[in-house]
Amino acid sequence: MVCVAIGGTFDVLHDGHKALLKKADTLGDVIIGLVSDEMAQKKFHVVNTYNNRKKSLIAYLETLTGAPPLIVALSDPYGPTLAQKFDYIVVSPDTRPTAKKINVLRSQRGLPPITIVCVDFVLAQDGKPISSTRIHNGEIDEHGVLL
C-alpha cells in the first residue's frame, strides 16, 4: 500500500486545494491532516469550523474517489507524519518548508524520508495564487474569478 499525506486548513475549499487533493489521490491512499479549530485560530481571518471544513472535504472527495476519505485532526504542523509510514507528502510551494522539516524530524527519529511532491499554485484571473484569505477578503471566488 502506498500512503500519501496531505495537510491543511482547507477553509473554503477552492481550486488550489482541489489540485493538491487530486494529485495526492493519483499517488496512493491518502490521509488528510485537517487543522484543528485551535490551530486555525492563528489565521489572519475567521476560519470555518473543523466540522464544516471536514464535511466540505468529505463531500468533494467522495465525488473524486467514490469513497470516504481518512481525515485526522492536526493539533500541530506534523500530525502522524512523525511516526507513521508515508511514501509521499503532497504540498504547495507555501507548505514545502514544513515538509522539509518533517523529513529532518523523521531522520532524527530514525525514520526514512517522505518523498515531497510539490503542486504549483492554481492562479486566479489576476495571476496571483488562489487562497482562502483572498476569498474571505472578497477579492476572488473559489475558482479564482475576480469579484
Descriptive notes:
With 147 residues, the protein is α/β, with parallel strands linked by helices. The protein has a single domain (3-136), classed as HUPs (Rossmann fold), CATH 3.40.50. It has 5 helices and 5 strands; from the N terminus they run βαβααββαβα. A 5-stranded parallel sheet has the order 3-2-1-4-5, sandwiched between helices. β4, α4 and β5 (115-118) form a beta-alpha-beta unit. α1 (15-27) crosses α3. The longest helix has 16 residues, at 50-65. The radius of gyration is 15 Å and the shape is globular. The mean pLDDT is 95.
| Shape-level CATH architecture | 3-Layer(aba) Sandwich
Number of extended strands: 5
Radius of gyration: 15 Å
Low-confidence stretches: none
The SSE order reads EHEHHEEHEH
Structural class: alpha/beta
Mean pLDDT: 95
Estimated helix fraction: 25-40%
Major sheet characteristics? 5 strands, parallel
How is the CATH topology named? Rossmann fold
Q: How would you write the strand order of the largest sheet? A: 3-2-1-4-5
Question: Please, how many helices?
Answer: 5
- What is the beta-strand fraction? 15-25%
How is the quaternary structure best described? single chain
Q: What's the shape? A: globular
Give the CATH superfamily: HUPs
